[in-house]
TrEMBL record:
Transmembrane segments: none annotated. Pfam families: BrxC_BrxD. It comes from Methanofollis liminatans DSM 4140. InterPro entries: BrxD, ExeA_AAA_ATPase_DNA-bind, P-loop_NTPase. This is ATPase.
């Protein structure tokens, strides 16, 4: 009889000069990637598109193509991380970058994923920032007696110098005039009330809220597929009002729309086309799609594909890029980073390059398995013999 054995003690990789196995077993991208190797043309095109949006304010969009495992998801998450790192808290420019794992069946699914990625904490801080801005404005025009210094509106409310209940009604009127969506304005502002924050977040993220709970916040209806674009526009408008712009939407696995029924697929493409049309400024969509799906879309749906200004193609990694990739991962677990490929031998890396066929995901997976195989056999390095003992290599 065989028993399932689960070992919970950590493996010791010190024999390889590492404090852990640096290669993820599944080859999927980190939530916040720090390593990006071998796609200078792609990054050049992405940089050009985003630079034009930042410098001119005009919307610009890009399609990112590449075969399975060549790094589409990794690239989108790297773009998001880079944007967030370059424009940190306190920066004069405050872009909003949200990642959408896949398009789903309607624009409501895209909206939900985008909102979830931004997170409730971020939207709550934006709600407070907007209310603080209104507080400063009505202090300046004399509507309230308290003298509020620029940038100190929300702080004045927190300290009790101004009552939140005195500011929110005026903030609601102003925001509703901008968004033209009263329900959205109510929910957005109610994020600043602790007792209403959870229900407001549920509503804003497109969840279905029963009438009794909506009535407490004076919300007339839920965000449905019919309202999703309107909600997205209200979100974009509200964030622009406090200087959070441009909005960067990163949509992954766009090839999934190929599984939709013809009418549903057409509705999805029409929704995205319409979104582009009504946002001539302040928006950049970067969409990742398998080439075998994107090419027919270009041929069949001109009304959508013609609105995507540029295309960037992720190519398999060459030998030098593979060496760089392996070294970068090794350095994440080395006490002292170096250019060495150890514990891998040169011959082993050449074999990994050939077997991986330049596919980043496959290469990372092989490397992770090879290090564990060498460790289990108590070897001092990873050579060709290790790869030959691994099944499938």
């Amino acid at each position: 009889m065989s028993d399932l054995k689960i070992i919970i003690s950590k493996k010791n990789y010190e024999v390889f000069g590492l404090n852990a196995n640096p290669f993820p077993y599944s080859g999927i991208p980190d939530q916040v990637p720090n390593i990006y190797v071998g796609q200078p043309e792609v990054m050049g095109k992405v940089s050009a598109v985003l630079s034009s949006v930042f410098s001119t304010g005009h919307s610009n969009h890009l399609i990112l193509t590449g075969s399975y495992g060549n790094g589409k998801s990794h690239t989108l998450k790297f773009i998001q991380a880079q944007v967030q790192n370059k424009f940190f808290e306190g920066s004069a420019i405050k872009p909003v970058a949200g990642y959408v794992a896949q398009p789903g069946e309607s624009f409501l699914d895209i909206y939900r994923d985008f909102i979830y990625d931004l997170g409730s904490a971020y939207l709550k801080s934006c709600s407070q920032e907007y209310i603080g801005t209104v507080c400063e404005e009505i202090s300046e025009n004399g509507t309230i007696e308290e003298d509020i210094q620029p940038g100190m509106g929300w702080r004045a409310i927190e300290k009790g110098k101004v009552l939140l209940s005195d500011i929110v009604p005026q903030a609601y009127v102003r925001l509703s005039e901008l968004t033209r969506y009263p329900d959205f304005s109510r929910a957005f502002l109610n994020l600043s009330y602790e007792e209403n924050a959870y229900t407001s977040w549920e509503w804003l993220s497109g969840e279905s809220i029963e009438y009794s709970r909506r009535r407490e916040l004076h919300l007339t209806s839920n965000i449905t597929a019919h309202h999703a674009q309107r909600a997205f526009m209200a979100l974009k408008t509200a964030l622009e009002a406090i200087g959070h712009s441009p909005m960067i939407m990163l949509i992954d696995e766009f090839e999934c729309i190929e599984t939709l029924q013809a009418r549903t697929k057409q509705n999805m493409l029409n929704a995205l086309r319409h979104l582009i049309d009504i946002n001539p400024t302040g928006l950049s969509m970067i969409i990742a799609c398998a080439p075998e799906v994107w090419e027919p879309l270009v041929a069949e749906y001109h009304a959508f594909s013609d609105r995507i200004a540029k295309e960037a193609n992720l190519k398999p990694l060459d030998k030098n890029s593979v060496v760089h990739l392996i070294t970068e991962y090794l350095n994440t677990c080395r006490p002292n980073p170096s250019d060495s490929l150890e514990p891998f031998t040169e011959e082993c890396v050449q074999r990994i390059f050939v077997e991986g066929n330049g596919n980043a995901r496959r290469i990372i997976t092989i490397c992770g398995q090879a290090i564990d195989e060498a460790l289990s056999k108590e070897m001092e390095g990873v050579d060709l013999g290790v790869l030959e003992r691994m099944s499938g290599i």
